[in-house]
Write the structure tokens for this entry.
Amino acid sequence: MTRILALTVLLVACNSSPEDDVIDSADDSGAAAVETCDNGVDEDGDSLIDCADDDCAGDASCAWPLAIATDITLAFDANALAKLGGASDCTTRVTSDMDVLYPNDCAECDRIYTGTLAYPSDDCPADPNGPRPTTGKYGVVFTSATTWKIYWVNQGTWTEMGDATDDGSTYTYTANEPVNYEGTEVGSLATTAKYSAL
Ligand SMILES: [Ca+2]
Ligand SMILES: [Ca+2]
């Protein structure tokens, strides 16, 4: 009897394939790996990440863009510029094609994006605080089909910028805000920011 049991154990061991081992180990942990569709990680090991993985077909997050184009115009008024070393109204336009960035370090945001900034037109004086930034980073909350809430990094902290509303193919944010210098309001800045899926 002992020899028969030993032979049975040996046959079972020989019939165990690598696939069985994978299934067994998954069973041992309680569940097989499931692809999460918005984190930039290939959880189930099929080399397909997030929306590229068939497991994410139909997932809501895959309806969101993986890349966006930004086109932002900053228009300063002359009063503000006189105090900052400039003499007349001026406009800086800054654009960027941005890709989704992982990990998402903006707790409020559905996604964050980053990209290299370009300045297709810029007739404003140099910033006394340093050169123009070369990299941009934005966060987005997909509030509804027609509204994105935009976040940006202000002095190291993610800060809500405001709502960008769909005007057909582009989400647009506009604002006209005071410019303060050394605690005094010296003028205003009109911002028009456009975001669209790539
Ligand atoms: Ca994933
Ligand atoms: Ca995968």
Remarks:
- Residues 2-15 form the longest helix (14 residues).
